[in-house]
Amino acid sequence: MLSASTLEQIASAAASIGALNDATLDSLKKNWPDLRFTFCNDDDMPARLSPALRGEGFNVYLVGGGEHCLSLTQDIGQAIGVVLAQVEED
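The structure assignment produced for this chain is given below.
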């Protein structure tokens, strides 16, 4: 389960690494092995869903695992992972 503090630590760690790629995810998984991580472009996220946290160059969304299916959630108490969504500069 995630907390606001852990979410901020994840965002800080991702920002310090720089690029969002497989190496970034590997590093995050080593620090938080019980959480799920993935990345994509922010344009791939549903427009109706607000990020749980905005980082520098990326947004953070929550992944829930209720009812045995993964889905996006805005309930940090239900979150079992995060999506790091890179924001493209126009």
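Interim note for the steering committee: The mean pLDDT is 91. DSSP finds two helices and five strands in the chain.
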